[in-house]
Amino acid sequence: MKRRVVVTGLGLITACGNSVAETWDSLLAGRSGADYIQKFDTEKFDVKFACEVKNFDPLLLIEKREARRMGAFSQFAIFAADEAIKHSGLVIDESNAFDVGTYISSGIGDFWAIEREHEKLLNDGPNRVSPFFIVSAIVNLASGNVSIRYGAKGPNSATATACSAGAHAIGDSFRLIERGDADAMICGGAESAITPMSVAGFNSMKAMSTFNDNPKMASRPFDANRDGFVIGEGAGILILEELEFAKKRGAKILAEIVGYGMTGDAFHQTSPDPSGSGAIRVMQKAIKDAGITPDKIGYINAHGTSTPYNDASETKAIKAVFGEHAYKLAVSSTKSMTGHALGAAGGIEAVISVMSLINQKLPPTINLENPDPECDLDYVPNVPRDAKVDYVLSNSFGFGGTNASLVFKRWEE
Q: What is the C-alpha end-to-end distance of the chain, expressed in Å?
């Protein structure tokens, strides 16, 4: 018999706020986190804006000596994990350390460290490369640093599955607890890849919006005038626990995770399969895993990147999975406000999905002014909505055709 898995803590660092409460309030207010890039000079760039994390000081929580050894994505992960752990009330000590794990993924790791140290190598020679370069950059160090800081000695892992990475971390953590390999997991995604090379590379692929005149209007999922995604950064962390483990320690249960699916498109390096095959199957798998019928889903937090191909393909897939119910459920893309945080997106959007269940409110898709005729579902345009929702589905799709879907259920005894 599968063990039940519940959510007991949430943590966020996003362009919309440096906590769950700040981010959630911004989403309900329809405030975009996009603005002109402050991290580097964009004079020669076609894209001059992003969804950067603001007013972030790692020294508020991390000792200066330790902060120097960490990439920004690890710092984001620690801040979000700290919020989630405190929110959950989970105390990790000798009695449970072997049963608490960390699984925090990233698409790229610390791109800043790669660029900075490569420049030192070229300009100053190999002996000037930092001894902390490798541990700053590699993808699994967000999970590793959180594990070290909080003494979690259970499973410690990370995936690098592009924009599905955070969702895969949560889904895999769900499986680890289900089958008894852990009693609790600190899981999600973290990313800090708003760098010159990253922005230049995505722009060369024609994947990013170039709406420089008004950055806050640039991310416009499902709108006919969308022209690409807005790159974001941050971290989204959940505390998952086996139900009886959580109850025994008197945890406040926020929601239950009941379904997880993962599929591959086997189609193209960057473009989604136009048939929507991978997206269709991943949603079907997650819903089947949850043991429910599609009509039970009341809200979908869409991958919704604001790229021409993704939004149309995802809409087509939703229609294929849900049939007539597709026109009765609500769909929104919070990337319209947070930007696309790459490997952190699935973690951030899982937190938002749980908040939707807790508060029975649906965050909007902002900047939806001229709907694409191919995108004809209810995208909660521009303003939030009160709604009675029992099940929420969160989608994440990544380059290489890697897909993940998560199903969360409103908690009830």
A: 19
